[in-house]
Give the backbone structure.
Amino acid sequence: MLMRSPLATHLSKMLFLTTALTLSATASAQMKDTAGEFSDVTIESSVLEPEKLAVPDDKKLTALIKAPEGFTVEVFARNLVNPRMLAVSKSGVLYATRRSVGDVIMLKDDNGDGKAETVRTVASRPGMHGIAFDENDVFLITVNDVYTAPVKEDGTFGPLTRIINDLPDAGQHANRTLGLGPDGMLYISVGSTCNECQESNAENATILRASKDGISRSIFASGLRNTIGFDWEPTTGTLYGFDHGIDWLGDEVQIEELNHLEQGKRYGWPYIFGAGEFNPHINPAEGITLSKWAALSTEPVLGYTAHSAPMQMAFYQGTMFPSDFRGDAFVAMRGSWNRRPPSGYEVVRINFEDGQPKAFEKFLQGFLLRQENGRYGYLGRLAGIAVGKDGSLFVADDSNGLVYRVSYSGEVNGSQSSLMNTPNTYRELPPSKIAIELLVAKSPAPIELNAIFADKKPIPLSYAADGESASPTLGWRGAPEATRSFVIIVDDPDAATPKPFVHWLAYDLPGNLNHLREGLPNDPVLSHPKDAKQGMNSAGSLGYIGPKPPVGDPAHNYHFQIFALDVETLGLDPGMTRDALITAMNGHVLAKGQVIGTFQREGTR
């Protein structure tokens, strides 16, 4: 949880105010009056879509683009229709996904003149968008599916193998991206289905973490509206991502958020944005306030001009650019439609010092023009960023169908220190016993716990992840008279990792309760039983998640465990981890009991 003192909150708000004033000459407060549970707010917003401009001559086009001294911008390839995400293979070949075409193209500079002579489709699937390389393998992602394929010596791809087929359905944000983390795992961005809403699928508006075979995955970070661009800071292995702000909150609101993405943390959306500011249009589920949601959320480390639309992001580890660029990040800003004047239509550099982001700096400009008639026009809407093997920078324009190459011909000062990834992104939990073996009860008499399934018998499909993932009916008796509250913990000790895999944490259940109905909502605080809280399962979501063992595993045993406590509340916030819950329960357990259900998956994942 992010803890903020009044001074820290004040300094954070000053940072965002300073950023907005620096980046926008017309910054002004546009949300007036009171935002909260009963909002009374006036918002002024804009729809302003610049006109697409085409300049067919390469030299005339690049002459309009402004780059720092010593840098040269050239057209690497034209007539590509819709190049979106870019990636460079181990051998140095550039690839671009084309969402509207539904394919991946290989762009080869055969003669070393800085232009692509070969443009060839190497993979095709509808909605192809994200791409990442892992040595001689490539990973590709569409809306619902993740594929992998070997990369052949000539740069083409071998047959595609689908490793994930059940990512959440899309909506407003269908552009999935993925990357290989320094821990050897796949990280997948799944945007929200909407501008602002309460998602029914916990995997929307998240970064997921998955094994490279696709067998297992969990939510790494949540509350992220649409983090298309993310990458790992090369000296620390720390993950950063640039999230798209909410539309229709005003020309200057919501800022685009650069987040330090950490395992298990929430980043505010859809209720909180910026420096703990309340979205006036939407409230959390009953039982948790906007203030509490803000306290449970992590604020961004930097904010950029609202509606700039950050796209792909890449840290620079090349040797062509001056040495002070090493370890900085580049971001393609596709540009606004919801702001007056327009923002974005540029490439931005994020300056890092000692592994920490410090400030933004405009790197490529000139793509947005004010025409003689006063209307705005654009030369490009930038989407993809990738660093070439020679240290040059590639930039994709998905509107006019171009890829640019940025090179540096000035003097390279200073030493080019080696940058190494340190995999500190994910903390693997050590194996543990199931909860009932860790917690000592004051009474030797067990609680009799009964479920919709018999002890050590199969769990019906409707309570499994492949079914409805509904929490099962539970009933119990035999709790001591002194019981003030109950806790439910569901562990799977047969999972490979984490061990055990946690499927449900429910705590502060009233002491006079003797059953739970099936199909409880996955809210952080329940309205019935009133004020009962739910913690984080091992999939990274709140509440109950049904069994989903790997296909081919023998049946796993799912331990539904109940604990009677001598306190009405453990004093914990909703969304706690199993370790935090067990620590708080120590010394308060009056009695305990369990029922074990089994489940084995059949067919293909």
